[in-house]
Amino acid sequence: KTIKYKKDSHSDSVLGLAWNKEYRNMLASASADQSVKVWDVNTRSCTVTMNDHTDKVQAVAWNPFASQILLSGSFDHTVCLKDVRYPSHSGYKFPVSADVESLAWDPHSEHSFVVSLENGTVTSFDIRAASSDSSSATKPSFTIHAHDKAVSSMSFNPLVPNLLATGSTDKMVKLWDLSNNQPSCIASRNPKAGAVFSVSFSDDCPFFLAIGGSKGKLQLWDVSSEDAVLKKYGKYVAQKGQLPKS
Fold it and tell me: Which InterPro entries match (predicted)?
């Protein structure tokens, strides 16, 4: 039986999704068809289509401080920043050294985001340094060789500034202090989840990190149990929530 797709649907796999937190009816999608689309879920229609990449688009992320600003990351080794109100504008390109795996805006700074790559690196950019001149590459704030394999997922701590978790197909999860754009690894763990595909700090219990991997089991890491975390972020630990009792 032939499947009928809605008008303006993607023509290949959808690889990434992101809800807009201010305009809750807006959903962005990234696709292997090299396009990024914005959908109005109330009307179930595509409102914007952007074709700024030359290879698969792996990830999209809305700026939490400026709801019209959208990042997209691609296998073409670029991250594109666009104001979706002006989809025909070429936007701003940030060159990276490998295929993009994931994107994350810093929830404590409206100007900064990080991008993780297939080659195990994590790079940070300040969007104020962006240039629309394609011949002028935007320099990153920092680049770290975070893992031995692809960095598949990242999560900023919602309570503690400069605390970033990374997960990788090298089976490791690491915690990074990004203060002053001089990142340092303060804790690492093999959660026995196999290749790690997803990490996420809890908004309600911000020292709990959820971890998902190839073994199919969900792991929880109370990162405040780490001496280095307690020493550096002790003033925040008293504010943390507790997991609800089952």
Answer: PWP1, WD40/YVTN_repeat-like_dom_sf, WD40_PAC1, WD40_repeat_CS, WD40_repeat_dom_sf, WD40_rpt
